Amino acid sequence: MEGALIARDRVGVQDFVLLDSHTSEAAFLNNLRKRYQENLIYTYIGTLLVSVNPYKELDIYTVTQMQLYRGVNFFELPPHLYAIADNAYRVMCSEYNNHFILISGESGAGKTEASKKILQYYAVTCPTTEQLQVVRDRLLLSNPVLEAFGNAKTLRNDNSSRFGKYMDIQFDFKGAPVGGHILSYLIEKSRVVHQNHGERNFHIFYQLLEGGEKDLLCWLGLERNPQKYAYLVQGRCAKVFSINDKNDWKIVRKAFSIIDFTEKDLEHLFGIVASVLHLGNIQFEEDSNGHAIIRNGTQIKWISKVLSPLNVDLAFYARDAVAKAIYGRTFTWLVNKINGSLANKDSTRKTVIGLLDIYGFEVLDTNSFEQFCINYCNEKLQQLLIEMTLKAEQEEYEMEGIEWEPIPYFNNKIICDLVEQKHKGIISILDEECLRPGEATDLSFLEKLEEKVGDHAHFVTRKLADQKTRKSIDWVDFRLLHYAGEVTYCAVGFLEKNNDLLYRNLKEVLCNSKNGIVRDCFLLSELDSRRRPETVATQFKNSLMSLIEILMSKEPSYIRCIKPNENKEPGKFDDCLIRHQVKYLGLMEHLRVRRAGFAYRRKYEHFLRRYKSLCPATWPHWHGPAAEGVERLIKHIGYKPEEYKLGRTKIFIRFPKTLFATEDAFEIRKHLLVSRLQAKYKGRLGKRDYQKKRKAAIKLEACWRGVLARKEAKKRTWAVQIIRKFIQGFINRKKPLCPENVEFVRLVQYKYLMKLRDHIPRNVLDKSWLQPPSILEEISEMLQKMCIRNLVRKYCRGVTPERKVQLQQKAVTSAIFRGKKEGYQQSINLPFADTRLSISTSNLGDGIVVMHVPEDNKQKGDVILQCEHIFEMVTKLCMLANKQNLVKVVKGSLRFRIGSGKEGTMVFTVGPEPHVFKAKDGQLTVVRPHQGTGSLVLAFPSDAQPLWESLRKHPWKRVVSVKRLLNRNLKETQFVFNLLTPFSHPRCQTRQSLDEKQFLVTRNGKEPAG
Ligand SMILES: Nc1ncnc2c1ncn2[C@@H]1O[C@H](COP(=O)(O)OP(=O)(O)O)[C@@H](O)[C@H]1O
Ligand SMILES: [Mg+2]
């Protein structure tokens, strides 16, 4: 893996551990320089990050970059702050423990920038929610506020932190930032009243004057010109081109609004800032008593009153003391206020990542109490680093029985002791001088130091120094040989700054201030307290102790910042300066320990607990001793002997790659296990769900079946009742209607009627009728009668008058012929014509009448009758036939048919005697007599002989004589009846019109017998 990393790296090596000559300082510097010149400002020593201030904006802090580093193995990508931040975050999330990132380096090396970038990284990459957005913004925006009040331009750094800051970012179990807490350390108050040449006061003063709204400045009584304020002009650089105060003011104002500052708070806060500026402008002069009075300005006479009876020097001193006290305490108030807005009220357990950005090691031309404290602080942090890395590491190897050749390193504990040891340390001596009765001065303090720590190897004064060094040390100076180099401190002001006293009457005034913040900062209870407050140095020492304690309880990550040159110049790599830093930061020792040592160690139990899933023998439980379990485990994974060592209680892994490979394997395994767990769990859920559904389905089914069964049962009960009723009805069907049979009978009636409807006869001839059940016979009979009557009526209505006549005739025919005469049956359907008869007579007085047979019957001949009452007879015949144009009266002769299509002629003449004769040619001649009775000539077909016979025998006495007219050869015989009575005799009637075949004469309306 590391091979790949080298390839990935364009310049030098990205981890000093990979340097060939790891003991060579030159090689170390070379690598650093090469990378720096390519803008690769970060390099690792194992897991420690070395950063060189580029003094220019680099394109490596974008959101894309942040995403790139998020969740990636530490060594996978080129070194970066983000890798350190992400590593700490990931370990925190997976192991649920607390971390801190210690950012160290001298002033201007880039610590504050680094801490801000880390904070931004968390703000961007950590999961968050809408509610947590506010927390995130507040965490981010606490920076500009604190920087405005706590940072200033110094010679080393245009944005130098003049206070120490430790910030805890709190995360919930999901890894979302949910709150924060800030600890601040010893703000450099002296800067409020005094700045060295080329330096500025705290940014806020300039920001307010540059950016403050006109109204605000007016209200505060300020002018937009820093030159007007004594506290702002001492450094003679109120304007700095790299700082945009106006812009920064806007940012600070916005930050205030987000961090929960009310308008009142801001009013008070800016009031304090302004009052400090005003204080600075107060000038005193001596009155006649040698007392200080305020030079100009009547309205603040009280100040001189409060301050009197002081001389002018003391008055100035008191003025500055008030300014410092107000500013210093306001800063503390500010930090508390921010903490209030960052606080997470939720009591669930949280993990934290602490960011320590504390003022860096500082060597100025004149170093005072503040530098002493700052450098002491750096000394302590160096000590912490040594304790936690070099020393602890080597001791651990020894303790664990790992073969180890000790690597010498400079342990700065000796310097720490020099400063902080009880009773013997510089701070104790300083406190003693401050507290002791009598005239204690900075010089007496110096003497005390010489007396008590004069023999310490790291302490020198002019008196103690050798000839050569003496020149560079003043009488009022003392020099400490810090781990990072020599620093000469000027003892002047040490006592006063350490005491940090404020005149009681001034305090009283401040306690009663109308400004809320001032009142909060100066509590009345403080006035009553008899106890002497702790000195500044002791307070600082104690706060450092507790900081170290806080840090010791957390997992560390280190960033070592290096300043490449003194001129804030980009690209300039000052070898000498950097070599010095590399040395005092102990980077070479760190590298050597790292190289010789092991990248990773872990207690057997922990190691086994984390990775036991990688080996079947240890998964899921290992019951033997943890060490053995680990041995089995690593054997299974296949660690090579050179990759690890087994200590007494821990396993030591030499190369990160070995651990990463294991971690990767674990990651894969974890996924596998998780998916198995998920599968099991999902299975359970599915099963539970299935069971639930099944139960529900069964219940539903049961219910539904119940419903169906009840329905069925109801139906059956109903059916049984119906059947029973039916049977009962059937049994009782013959009884008169009663409840037992009424329904049955109705049903039978209904059924019969419905059936009958489809079988009703449709015409009068249809005699069929549906057989009724026995109980309905009577009704059925009635119905049938009705039906027939109805049909007949309908039929009768449909009969036309012509048809009626026809039918009447047919009825007569039936009466005459039915069952008697052949052919009757066939004749029924043949309708009778109105008349087939036509009659001819001559115009003479004879009694001859010829009845013409219709021409369609060729077989038959016409009937020739001779009748006495010819007029009567013909008229009656016409009336009978209901036709008047039936009769033709001819002159001379007429033609008639004889039969078989032959015709004969009849000639009429007048003679003396009635006579009818047949000529030889067959012509029939009729002679009219002058007088006599009528005769009736009837012509019958020859086969009508029997009819004729019966007529002759008939006792119809009025037929007087009958003559045979025709010869026998003829098929047709014509007879002449001599009738005594005319045809109209009431007893002689014809019921029907004359027919060519039959001529029936009945008497009294009856058929002639025989
Ligand atoms: N990573 C960086 N990229 C660009 N400029 C930087 C970076 N780190 C520091 N600087 C520059 O160096 C100056 C000093 O950095 P700062 O973090 O304030 O130093 P320190 O806090 O160590 O005193 C910054 O104002 C900035 O101009
Ligand atoms: Mg800083």
From TrEMBL:
Gene3D superfamilies: 1.10.10.820, 1.20.5.190, 1.20.58.530, 6.20.240.20, Kinesin motor domain, Myosin VI head, motor domain, U50 subdomain
GO terms, biological process: actin filament organization; actin filament-based movement; endocytosis
Residues the entry annotates as binding ATP: G105, E106, S107, G108, A109, G110, K111, T112
GO molecular function: actin filament binding; ATP binding; microfilament motor activity
Keyword tRNA-binding in record: no
Domain Myosin motor: 12-667
GO cellular component annotations of the record: cytoplasm; microvillus; myosin complex; plasma membrane
TH1 domain sequence ranges: 749-930
Span list, region Actin-binding: 544-566
Keyword NADP: no
Similarity annotation: Belongs to the TRAFAC class myosin-kinesin ATPase superfamily. Myosin family.
Protein name (database record): Myosin IH
Organism name: Pavo cristatus (Indian peafowl)
Phylogenetic classification of the source organism: Eukaryota, Metazoa, Chordata, Craniata, Vertebrata
